[in-house]
Amino acid sequence: xxxxxxxLAVLTALEFLYICYLESVATDSEKxxxxxxxxxxxxxxxxxxxxxxxxxxxxxxxxVMIFLxxxxxxxxKGVFCLMCYIIGVAAYGSITSNPKxxxxxxxxxxxxxxxxxx
Length: 118
Fold this sequence. Notes:
By secondary structure, the chain is an all-alpha fold. It is built from seven helices and no strands. The protein has one domain (3-115). Helices cover 81% and strands 0% of the residues. The termini are close together. The mean pLDDT is 97.
């Protein structure tokens, strides 16, 4: 795996850790409300708060899998598959929620996939 791919993969993992933090720890913060375009009042609703925390753990585990693929297994295939998964989820979010998601959540993953061809 080339150094550019490793750097981009790690940046993607860090992005997902940040999303994990927003959704699981700072669930009803001003920053989380701004990032997700929701009111803090809505984020404090028990059902929404629970869903966000659950989603946050999912995003944190994606980050862990990326780190494992890069540092433990040194697996280009693993990184490639994870990035394709992220791009797929971001594409779905762009279609169903907000078109910006493909770049906001999928941008680094797209760059990482491109870097795997060099």
